[in-house]
Inverse folding.
């Protein structure tokens, strides 16, 4: 066998080289069969191996007459092969082998009937070359159906096929080749003389100026450009080159790029030396824009009416073809009617089959799935001929496949996809790219033969496909688009008559037992009426009627085809098929459709369709549905890693009975939804695929893709149910609501309901990951836990009823309506009624605590309503005007923090209670844009604004009520009260920055002072002074009059607790155990700080008395020198027991006292030497010093004193004194520097020792070149060690230091306030500096602040920040005399800055604070 086949191959090859004409090439098995088993009449008795090895080929005798001329099949064909170098088959010839029993008379009759003749006989294979003047397509069909032929084949041409143009990118267009492309090498030559065809591109517009398209754009010759007149009266003014239906103008430009890509595939100019070549060069593109992009580049969807208008415009203005690479919306009868109307006008509607990888026969994808006869539905293949993984398919609803993967085409220069210098080209994939290949081929064919109708074109393209095993069961015609064969078939096509139905809609649904009445008109090719000759044939090939009308009883369920058939006057057969779907009588619920909440006294409407007996009655029951779920919480989330490893989530069902229905819900965030395969596994192992790489598209934005809202089972889940209206394949993210799964859940019906169910999620692709927040199954069984009869007897044909829900509710949970035991069986609704949903909480308050956070709180006593109790509260935040949740939170306490918001946007909050039934009814609250300026007039903040309140004078924080949230204390020391003017007041804001829970703390009245000018709140500190776990508050009242001493001062203590500040105390220098005695103007409490000085576990308070009067005759010093008092904490709180009193004449204390030095004007505590005891920093900003040799002598030079703590309190052996002339100190002293006016401590370099940070707000500097000379300010950092604070490697910073932002100015007071805290959470404390005298935009004393960040190297200026109110991070603008930066506190890792001089709503010095989140 091998040698015979080999020799035959050599003969074929030799002929190919010489003649370039196709030689018959039968399959090897057929050749071998004829050679090895010749007819006995030829004289061969057997087929022995010896005969085969002799290389002697047996021959046959010609039995039929042969005409050797063959002018067409030989000479004319040879001419065509030269003109069209890549024809795939002889247009005038076929190869035939007659069967052994064929008679000569039968062969001659066949030749006569088909007007063909035999022109060559091949004796070695007993076959003939047949010349077919009417074309090889017709001849091949006729001979194949004759009954006397064994083998018939086209006369195939063998040669190398290439496409040669001068377009530089032509080599990248695999879609034009002859393997799996359209075979342009045949199609182009065969259509060279084709007439012009207008193709409408209904899409995102077209870049008409693209050099590969500019010459291919349709021009409306009946419209005069730009005259503002509808010259052709088509309803569109100046529509010279198409229309934009999105914006209703005459410029259908393309900012997306999709339409330009489609247009290039169809018609990019051929042989222009530019870019690519399109499929068709006889085309004019009519750009019709219905889709586009917004300013952010996101796609804009369009309503059905715009598509309908575009379809009408296309065919009414001469487009014979439209390309429609769009779809996926709901079914529209009007759109189908528009497509049908276009078809009646001879318009071919080419539609992309869709990119969901789904079966359109099961999950319709519109418009490709409409039954309109003029729709050509196109799937996508890759260059290897495989169906693209994303491509939809369908043996009845998708016609053929075309190139649709890695398709290079033109791209709009306005598109985000155009990243190079125009003109742009880009490769895209999708059925959107496959459809234009088919549109281009259809245009070539129509250019050759304009008489071809849309239906005939579809049939020609289908008959001309390149069949493949891959597509055989995937698309209607079983193969790939073959442009060459299609064009060749068009050249030979001759129209026949037509049959048309009246009042028929394809795919009509007919009830079983109904009679179908059809009428048809048959018109012959010559126009004659042949209706009386129509034969009607059903599915079983039986003739069921004749003539123009038929009545047919639809007795069998399923697809019914009635064929109207007639013989045309030219002898051809005309057929028209009417398709119907015959269905059995049914009972089907239509509402409720999806989850619906029901409350007492509500009326629930239930609807259904009934096609059974008209008078049948049935009970209507409510059946409970069993819900089982898993839910992620912060501490236990179900991660979906970037791995192909299945994530199995087990849900244990305790439901009884047999399954009647299953619904599955999920709530997933995943950055690429098409990665996921989701399935459900029954306890017996049966697996149902719910979603399989659905939702194709890039979503790497953290957005929700499977469900919405709360990241829990209280959110809006994506449900899978066989009773849904749309398939998951046809829907897009976030898939909320109900979808039909990929595989039917009905496979689980009849199985046991209890046991371990598994929801399995597999991430099948790389790079992306996600989290599953909820997995839920809803089981309806034959043994529901609860059943209630809603109505004893309902007339089923009424198809609707109302159920009035009783009050109180007799039960709660999920329920479905059911009709039991009807003549058509049992039926349950689509799911579900939720009974017993909780009420929302009461007294809800919401505060915008930062740009990206809203804190919501409610009355904890809300939950007291028995069956309507909530177990937690769900809050969703929606951007105002939007319907998608932007963020959410769930809480089982009485507060909830919503994070991740956008500072500049307003939000609408929905607040719902949640219980086992679900999330209940919503309460709505609006929250405005973030305002980080807080004043006494703010919503929720008690008190109101008045002149000189100076809200923001002092700040501190702590957890005073023990709820774990930071509370903020703000003083307004100029507040006038009902008692007196400028008495002062303090605000306690619990759970700051939520403003909803706050109280006013007022001065505790004394027997000596009415409170006038007391300045209650001039200083603040906090600490746990009694060790009860609650922070306590100390308020300094330095201007309090004691007995007859004005401004003697006091402190007032407000103890924290469950009911904070109800326990109070007062201390002054006449209090028991407190050292010193009251004198006027001593200002006891002008500064306060706290820390555990003696390490006993109780915080102690250090009180500055900067005006302390002392008189020492031995030194001649008598006056206000200053001092500090230390009061120690205990289980009973602050007492005078063991108190200490220290000044510069205290034994072993360094320094020499002088009048006006203000020892104690500032105080701070911190562990400077790391011994576990807090130490004290005392500022002495008025310190007098005199250095005659440098000419410096005077007050207000300043110093600091460091006092070290121990088990016994302040140590007397190692205090430290630092001034600007101390060894190692970098700064230089000047009168008025006020070194130490502010002090603070913090571990700036992270070595475990606190540093001393001190302000020098009067620091004198002089820079003549910038005309600045005077008191500008500075700060200094002294570093802690095991031996205490050292001046070695100290840091000195001012606004002229390298890296420190801002400009130095006289009176800035840089360093008037200093504090520390770890703002960036890097483990190093940072320094925050108040500059209340800073001039901002010519506004004097507007104020500012600076941040210097800590590091292992200590305080550094890298990344230093300047803060002032006119910056975008703040609400409002900087104001004259606002003195922003006069008070600063760190709360958590956020900043609160006081501006006590701020004007608020026109009220001078009312004061504000500003809250800055890090």
């Amino acid at each position: 066998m091998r040698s015979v086949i080999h020799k035959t191959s050599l003969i074929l090859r030799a002929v190919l080289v010489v003649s370039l004409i196709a030689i018959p090439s039968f399959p090897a098995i057929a050749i071998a069969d004829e050679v090895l088993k010749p007819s006995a009449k030829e004289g061969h008795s057997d087929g022995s191996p010896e005969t085969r090895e002799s290389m002697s080929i047996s021959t046959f005798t010609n039995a039929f007459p042969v005409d050797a001329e063959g002018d067409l099949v030989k000479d004319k064909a040879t001419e065509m092969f030269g003109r069209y170098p890549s024809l795939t088959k002889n247009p005038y010839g076929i190869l035939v082998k007659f069967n052994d029993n064929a008679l000569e008379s039968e062969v001659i009759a066949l030749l006569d009937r088909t007007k063909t003749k035999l022109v060559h006989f091949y004796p070695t294979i007993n076959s003939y070359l047949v010349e077919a003047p009417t074309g090889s397509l017709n001849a091949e069909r006729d001979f194949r159906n004759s009954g006397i032929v064994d083998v018939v084949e086209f006369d195939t041409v063998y040669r190398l096929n290439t496409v040669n143009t001068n377009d530089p990118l032509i080599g990248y267009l695999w879609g034009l080749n002859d393997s799996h492309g359209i075979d342009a090498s045949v199609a182009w030559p065969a259509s060279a003389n084709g007439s012009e065809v207008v193709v409408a591109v209904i899409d995102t517009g077209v870049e008409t100026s693209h050099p590969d398209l500019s010459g291919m754009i349709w021009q409306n010759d009946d419209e005069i450009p730009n005259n503002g007149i509808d010259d052709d009266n088509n309803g569109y003014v100046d529509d010279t080159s198409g229309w934009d239906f999105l914006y209703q103008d005459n410029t259908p430009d393309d900012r997306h790029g999709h339409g330009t890509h489609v247009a290039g595939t169809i018609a990019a100019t051929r042989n222009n030396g530019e870019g690519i070549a399109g499929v068709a060069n006889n085309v004019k593109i009519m750009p019709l824009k219905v889709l586009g992009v917004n300013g952010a580049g996101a796609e804009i969807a369009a309503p059905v009416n715009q598509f309908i208008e575009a379809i009408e415009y296309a065919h009414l203005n001469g487009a014979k073809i439209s390309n429609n690479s769009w779809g996926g919306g709901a079914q529209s009868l009007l759109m189908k009617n528009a497509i049908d109307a276009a078809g009646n006008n001879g318009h071919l509607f080419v539609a992309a089959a869709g990119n969901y990888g789904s079966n359109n026969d099961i999950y319709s994808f519109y418009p490709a799935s409409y039954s309109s006869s003029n729709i050509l539905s196109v799937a996508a293949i890759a260059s290897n001929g495989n169906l693209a993984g994303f491509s939809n398919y369908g043996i009845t609803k998708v016609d053929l496949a075309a190139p649709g993967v890695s398709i290079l085409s033109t791209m709009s220069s306005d598109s985000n996809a155009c990243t190079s210098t125009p003109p742009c080209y880009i490769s895209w994939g999708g059925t959107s790219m496959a459809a234009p290949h088919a549109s281009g081929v259809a245009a070539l064919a129509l250019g050759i033969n304009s008489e071809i109708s849309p239906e005939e074109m579809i049939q020609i393209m289908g008959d001309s496909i390149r069949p493949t095993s891959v597509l055989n069961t995937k698309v209607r015609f079983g193969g790939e688009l073959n442009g060459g064969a299609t064009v060749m078939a068009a050249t030979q096509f001759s129209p026949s008559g037509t049959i048309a139905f009246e009042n028929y809609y394809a795919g009509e649904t007919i009830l079983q037992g109904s009679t179908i009445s059809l009428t048809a008109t048959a018109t012959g090719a010559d126009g004659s009426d042949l209706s009386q000759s129509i034969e009607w044939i059903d599915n079983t090939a039986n003739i069921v009627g004749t003539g123009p009308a038929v009545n047919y009883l639809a007795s069998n369920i399923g697809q019914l085809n009635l064929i109207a058939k007639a013989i045309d006057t030219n002898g051809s057969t005309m057929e028209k098929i009417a398709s119907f779907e015959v269905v059995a009588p049914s009972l089907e619920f239509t509402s409720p459709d999806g989850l619906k909440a029901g409350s007492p006294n509500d009326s629930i409407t239930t609807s259904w369709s009934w096609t059974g007996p008209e008078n049948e009655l049935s009970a209507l029951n409510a059946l409970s549905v069993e819900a089982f779920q898993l839910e992620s919480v912060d501490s236990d989330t179900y991660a979906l890693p970037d791995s192909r490893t299945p994530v199995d989530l087990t849900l244990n069902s305790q439901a009884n009975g047999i399954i009647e229905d299953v619904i599955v819900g999920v709530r997933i965030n995943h950055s690429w939804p098409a990665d996921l395969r989701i399935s459900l596994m029954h306890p017996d192992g049966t697996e149902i695929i719910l979603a399989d790489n659905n939702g194709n598209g890039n979503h790497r934005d953290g957005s929700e893709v499977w469900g919405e809202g709360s990241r829990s089972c209280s959110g809006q889940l994506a449900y899978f149910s066989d009773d849904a209206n749309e398939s998951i394949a046809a829907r897009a993210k976030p898939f909320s609501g109900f979808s039909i799964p990929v595989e039917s859940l009905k496979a689980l019906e009849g199985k046991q309901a209890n046991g371990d169910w598994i929801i399995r999620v597999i991430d099948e692709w790389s790079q992306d990951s996600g989290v599953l927040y909820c997995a839920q199954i809803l089981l309806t069984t034959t043994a529901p836990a609860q059943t209630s009869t809603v109505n004893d007897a309902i007339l089923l044909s009424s198809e609707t009823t109302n159920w009035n829900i009783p009050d109180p509710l007799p039960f709660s949970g999920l329920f479905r309506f059911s009709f039991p035991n009807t003549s058509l069986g049992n039926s349950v609704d689509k799911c579900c009624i939720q009974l017993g949903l909780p009420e929302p909480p009461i007294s809800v308050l919401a505060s915008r605590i930062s740009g990206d956070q809203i804190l919501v709180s409610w009355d904890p006593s809300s939950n007291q309503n028995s069956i309507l109790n909530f177990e937690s509260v769900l809050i969703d935040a929606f951007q105002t005007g939007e319907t998608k949740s932007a963020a959410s939170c769930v809480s089982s306490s009485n507060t909830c923090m919503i994070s991740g918001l956008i500072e500049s946007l307003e939000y609408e909050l929905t607040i719902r209670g949640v219980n086992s039934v679900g999330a209940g009814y919503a309460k709505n609250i609006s929250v405005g844009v973030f305002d980080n300026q807080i004043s006494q007039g703010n919503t929720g903040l008690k008190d109101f604004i008045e002149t000189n309140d100076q809200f923001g004078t002092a700040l501190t924080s702590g957890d005073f009520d023990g709820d774990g949230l930071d509370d903020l204390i703000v003083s307004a020391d100029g507040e006038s009260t009902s008692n007196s003017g400028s008495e002062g007041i303090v605000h306690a804001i619990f759970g700051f920055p939520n403003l909803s829970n706050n109280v006013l703390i007022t001065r505790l009245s004394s027997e000596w002072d009415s409170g006038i000018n007391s300045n209650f709140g001039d200083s603040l500190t906090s600490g746990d002074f009694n060790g009860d776990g609650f922070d306590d508050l100390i308020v300094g009242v330095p201007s309090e009059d004691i007995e007859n001493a004005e401004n003697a001062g006091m402190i007032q203590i407000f103890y924290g607790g469950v009911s904070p500040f109800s326990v109070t105390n007062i201390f002054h220098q006449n209090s028991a155990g407190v050292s010193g005695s009251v004198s006027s103007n001593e200002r006891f409490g002008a500064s306060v700080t706290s820390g555990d000085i003696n390490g006993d576990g109780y915080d102690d308070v250090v009180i500055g008395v900067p005006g302390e009067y002392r008189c020492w005759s031995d030194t001649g010093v008598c006056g206000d020198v200053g001092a500090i008092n230390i009061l120690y904490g205990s289980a009973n709180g602050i007492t005078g027991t063991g108190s200490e009193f220290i000044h510069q004449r205290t034994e072993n204390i360094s320094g020499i006292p002088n009048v006006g030095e203000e020892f104690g004007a500032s105080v701070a505590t911190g562990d400077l030497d790391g011994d576990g005891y807090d130490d004290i920093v005392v500022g002495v900003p008025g310190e007098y010093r005199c250095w005659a040799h440098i000419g410096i002598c005077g007050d207000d030079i300043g110093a600091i004193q460091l006092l070290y703590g121990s088990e016994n309190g302040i140590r007397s052996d190692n205090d430290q004194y630092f001034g600007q002339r101390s060894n190692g100190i970098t700064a230089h002293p000047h009168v008025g520097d006020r070194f130490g006016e502010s002090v603070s401590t913090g571990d700036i370099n992270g070595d475990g020792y606190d540093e001393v940070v001190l302000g020098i707000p009067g620091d004198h500097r002089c820079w003549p070149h910038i005309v600045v000379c005077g008191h500008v300010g500075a700060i200094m950092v002294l570093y802690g060690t095991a031996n205490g604070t050292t001046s070695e490697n100290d840091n000195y910073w001012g606004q002229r230091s390298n890296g420190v932002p801002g400009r130095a100015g006289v009176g800035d007071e840089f360093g008037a306030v200093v504090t520390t805290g770890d703002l960036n959470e890097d483990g190093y404390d940072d320094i925050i500096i108040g500059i209340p005298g800073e001039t901002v935009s010519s506004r004097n004393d507007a104020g500012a602040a600076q941040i210097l960040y800590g590091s292992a190297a200590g305080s550094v200026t890298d990344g230093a920040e300047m803060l002032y109110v006119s910056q975008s991070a703040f609400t409002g603008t900087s104001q004259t005399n606002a003195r922003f930066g006069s008070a600063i506190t760190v709360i958590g890792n956020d900043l609160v800055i006081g501006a006590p001089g701020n004007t608020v709503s026109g009220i001078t010095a009312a004061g504000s604070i500003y809250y800055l989140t890090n």
